[in-house]
Amino acid sequence: MDVRWINPFIEAFLNVMPQIGFQEIKKNNISVKSSSLTSSGVMMNLGVVGDLKGNVIYNIDLEDAKKIASKMMMGAPVLELDDMAQSAISELSNMLTANASINFSNMNISTNISIPTLMYGKDFEVKVNVDQFICVQMLVDQIPIDINIAVHE
Questions:
Q1: CB 143 within 8 A of CB 69
Q2: How far apart are CA 119 and CA 42, in angstroms?
Q3: Main-chain dihedrals φ then ψ at residue 90, nearest 5 degrees
Q4: d(CA 44, CA 85)
Q5: Would residue 2 be called left, alpha or beta, if left means φ above 0 and alpha means ψ between -120 and 50 degrees?
Q6: Alpha carbon separation from 3 to 6, 26, 130, 135 (Å, rounded)
């Protein structure tokens, strides 16, 4: 996997999250993972096609997903991950990945993305389409969000 494919996602976070109202956005950790990942609560999976092919999977703790949904819904309390909260979280993954796609375009790399698939539950496992992938953990107002980047040329 080419490390150049990490920065478009980090830049997307730095661009999109302040527009939603988050103040402190920073990269926390980068790691290499292999073949599968375990849910920490909520996962949003988006397909990538074009010059790059594969998936981007965002992984967020359930309680943190509720906090993010609340922020996206202008501070409305989110007590459970109901349809409205799921829609907000899915839209966030769509906004982040679309912004990353624009960043790839600025690098002359053509990509298109699928609509997000939201999955949530306790300790389920997702197999990815490559043997190894990169996980970038971002901290958004101290909320960890893992970006699992499983793309190839």
A1: no
A2: 6
A3: -60, -40
A4: 13
A5: beta
A6: 6, 18, 15, 11
How would you classify residue 36: left for phi > 0, otherwise alpha for psi between -120 and 50, otherwise beta? beta
Map tokens 């190839």 to a residue.
152
In terms of residue numbers, what domain contains 22?
Answer: 3-152
Residue whose C-alpha is closest to residue 20's, from 82, 94, 113, 81: 94
pLDDT tens for the chain, 153 residues long, are 677 889 999 999 999 999 999 999 999 999 999 989 999 899 999 999 999 999 999 999 999 999 999 999 999 999 999 999 999 999 999 999 999 999 999 999 999 999 999 999 988 999 988 889 999 999 999 999 999 999 988
The token duo for 1 is: 């996997």
Tally of domains within the chain: 1
pTM of the model: 0.94
Task: Give the angle 11-9-78 at the CA atoms, nearest 5°.
Answer: 95
Among candidates 75, 76, 45, 43, which has minimal Cα distance to 60? Answer: 43
